[in-house]
Design goal:
The chain is mostly helical. It has four helices and no strands.
Length: 101
């Protein structure tokens, strides 16, 4: 399964990135900024489908599970982005070229 999943991710990552760049070009924004808006939606599509399924059941337990899943997904995304920014900052500090404070 892991090999199949890795192959699937590898095969669709470039077309998804190209699609984000094309959407950014058509909208008139930088691809860098469009990636920050569109990539989390793409990467969390399975969580959003799961939450939709749980929410459709309309019980208090399923709603609690759906909200907890969304909160966990937000925490994971925020932690990942913070790690990326911190590593970029450390790299800039190490080379002596801090761009913005």
């Amino acid at each position: 399964r892991l090999v199949v999943g890795g192959t699937l991710v590898y095969s669709i990552s470039l077309p998804v990135a190209q699609c984000i760049v094309e959407v950014a070009r058509r909208v008139g924004v930088a691809p860098y900024y469009a990636g920050f808006v569109l990539a989390p939606w793409a990467s969390n599509a399975s969580e959003l489908a799961q939450v939709t399924h749980y929410s459709a059941q309309r019980t208090s337990e399923s709603i609690s599970v759906a909200l907890a899943s969304l909160a966990a997904s937000a925490c994971i995304n925020n932690t990942l982005c913070l790690g990326i920014y911190l590593s970029a900052h450390v790299q800039e500090a190490a080379t002596g070229r801090l761009i913005a404070e």
